[in-house]
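Q: Could you fold this chain for me?
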Amino acid sequence: MPLSEYEQRVLEQMERALTSDDPRLANTLQSSGRRSVLRYVLAGVGVVVGLLLLVVGVASSLTWVGVVGFVLMFAGVVFAVAAPRRKSGPAGVVDAEGKVVPPKPGKGKGKPSGKGGWSGFLTRLEERWDRRRDQGR
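A: Sure. Below is the predicted structure, expressed as structure tokens.
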């Protein structure tokens, strides 16, 4: 059942509002979530080989072979589940006109967004801890 004109307009307004409020989230939601079949095949092969090594290691009492098999199985599962790395594109945010706006200086990786940086974050954590400790008494 197709959407009515009113529903389409409301949906477009919501999409524009989301894009203007949080461009990163909008970009994440619009990107395709499909993963390569080759990724799953390689992960499956890794899990199967790891399982075989684990069984052989246990059967022959070679602990190191079992450990290698377990690590290989674990790595295969992580490889299948983990999101593939994105190719690095232009740094910054795309504005409403389609231009790339470079990131603001001082807003590097490793700092939480918002007021105060790490010191403000740690201060808030300490305040929460103190309140919880005081409530327990």
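A (continued): The chain has a mean pLDDT of 77.
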